[in-house]
Amino acid sequence: MVTMWLQVFTNILLGLGLYVIFRKLTDMEAEGSYGDVDGPPNDHWFAGIFGGRLHNGLNYILRNTEIFGTVWKYAARYWAEALIVSDPLALHYILIKDQDSFEVADAVLSGNSLAFGPGLISIAGDQHRKQRKILGPLFSMSNMQDLLPALQPVVDKVRASITAQVSQHGGQPVEIDIPGWLSRASIEYIAQAGMGQSFDLLDSDYKTQDPSDFVKAVKQLRPLHQKLAFFQPIFRLIARYLSPYWWDAIAKWLPLPDHRKLRWCINVLHTTSKKALLQRKADIKLAHETRARSRSRSRSRDKNEEQFLKIRGKDIMTSLLVANSTAHEAERLSDGEILAQMSTFLFAGFDTTTDTLNQILYTLALDDHLQARLRGEIRKAKQEYATFQAELEEDDSDVSWENVELPYDVLLGLPLLDAVFHETLRMYPPVTEITRVAQEDTNLPLQFPIHSKSGIRMKTVPIPKGTPISISILGANYNKDIWGDDAYDFKPDRWLTDGGEFNRNGEKTHKRRASRARKMQDDDASHGSMRNGSPPGSGAQGGMKYPGIYSSIMSFGGGNRACIGFRFAEMQITQMLVTLLSTLHFSLPYDAESSVKSSRSSSGPRLATEFNGSLNVRLVREDDFITL
Ligand code: HEM
């Protein structure tokens, strides 16, 4: 009996002991302090790790994320410290759940305001909410559906001009400045969609013509911004206390020619948008007057109503003016706010879409098999759609499949094209990080605990008010816990269920439409849920996901500041690819790949910008298609 009680007593003691040890361990996880968060050593007493990041780009961030985990601290410029965060739960808190506690830095907002005026990237709080409310619907799927056919002539023109260059060489591969063509096409595409204006005829004898100031300004905007990146925090701080007038007056005297060029670009964009605004207002007035006149002559009313709706459906500026005129007074945007959006869209939309397009064509030039699969998918979709249309309209005229224009839902429902687009954005995000500042003391919970300098396992990170935070899109998109051990490999098939339409040998397997499930998930993400479990084809592993607006990838951001133009970018890039790939074949110029390889200091993702050159282009042949 005594032995039994002794045993019970010993077991209770053992249990208590274990409980105390367990509590101690879990307490230790919560004990880590902000100062204890680990990170790479400082490279420079004044510039911090700025130089390392600039020179080693993608690899610098990825290497440190592998070493220190999904939260690490680094020495920023001017003796400041900042956190780089790529943990999914932490990002959910920063961008969605606790978004009011993490805002873009005041200095960044005032700097953007100085450059672009009161557009989306320059404001916060209620004004930002007001602008998103009126601007969001302009980028809806139905508006994109209306814009798509209106923009097809831009894409056709580029293809015709490239084809003309190819044809001069009797169908043999010819080296063409594809990045140059893509950037011209993107400017024209965004300008027509955004303001209803054309700035470039996209003729092939462009080299002999002087590009318009507008085209020059858009092209130089981001490179100049990047060149001046080191000085931006200083400019922004000064700008906080000066009006644009005084800042302009003082900036003229600064010994910084790049800064003067940047001011020139901004003035050109502003003047151009102002002219476009006046013209679009005049168009709408005319349409109203025509409509009013037609009311008194009721027979022609429908026709004129149609004309008005046509204008309304085309460019974003007109749609915005129309939406503004019907909005409640408190929700309307001022002319200054409307103008600021145009420069903002050009700044945010031009390089990002052009770089992505460049990257996709470069990847396809490296991988002929993938290029042939994609072209096969495009041909099949166009042929099927042409047959469907012919049956519907009882039309038996023979239209060549290459010139068939796919409607929006078919274009975005092509599984392999969708997968290539997702995988390119995952691996080569044109924006690699976005920044926020903690507005109050807070605790950031982590999905993947980190080890502090003193060896503590931290499940949460205490963040003092004022801490700058870099959200690492790159770190998130390459996180092996989410994407698997092959996270560093370019594998579009990860976005297709069970290996996609083709297995690795190019043989046919199951086919599915991944897009619908994913788009539903996107809507979910934009409304702030952290769903536990990803739909098939979302690309992510093990039911964990990031709070990105676009599937589990963070490339378009997430939450209330997520990219407003993501559907526009998706439409532009897929429309360009479908049009170009139908008739043209792309490959690397003979020695390009080896020169890229030899110029690389370390292994890692291969960027089109490292190569940044021409591609060999020829007309397609039958063996350039892999068809189901
Ligand atoms: C592949 C193309 C694109 C990528 C990867 C991209 C990426 C991003 C990212 C990551 C953000 C979030 C910034 C933050 O949270 O601080 C953002 C915001 C934004 N993007 Fe994009 N973008 C693209 C194309 C476009 C296009 C075509 C437009 C306009 C037509 C556009 C307009 C904007 C605007 C206005 C914002 C600011 C939104 C706000 O603060 O409310 N973007 N973009």
UniProtKB/TrEMBL annotation:
Mark the transmembrane ranges: 6-22
Q: Which GO terms describe its molecular function?
A: heme binding; iron ion binding; monooxygenase activity; oxidoreductase activity, acting on paired donors, with incorporation or reduction of molecular oxygen
Q: Which GO terms describe its cellular component?
A: membrane
Pathway the protein acts in: Secondary metabolite biosynthesis; terpenoid biosynthesis
SUPFAM superfamilies the record matches = Cytochrome P450
Query: Where the protein is mainly located, per its record?
Result: membrane
Can you tell me which residues bind heme?
C563
* Pfam families xrefs: p450 (PF00067)
Per the record, where are the segments of Basic residues compositional bias? 509-518
Query: Which InterPro entries does the record associate with it?
Result: Cyt_P450, Cyt_P450_CS, Cyt_P450_E_grp-I, Cyt_P450_sf, Cytochrome_P450_monoxygenase
What are its cofactors?
heme
Residues of the signal peptide: none
Q: Which domain of life is it from?
A: Eukaryota
Gene3D superfamilies, sorted: Cytochrome P450
UniProt region (Disordered), positions on chain = 499-543
Coiled coil segments of this chain: 371-398
Q: Where in the cell is it found?
A: Membrane
UniProt keywords, alphabetically: Coiled coil, Heme, Iron, Membrane, Metal-binding, Monooxygenase, Oxidoreductase, Transmembrane, Transmembrane helix
The text of the family note is: Belongs to the cytochrome P450 family.
Protein name (record) = Cytochrome P450
Please name the source species. Answer: Cristinia sonorae
From which lineage does this chain's organism come? Eukaryota, Fungi, Dikarya, Basidiomycota, Agaricomycotina
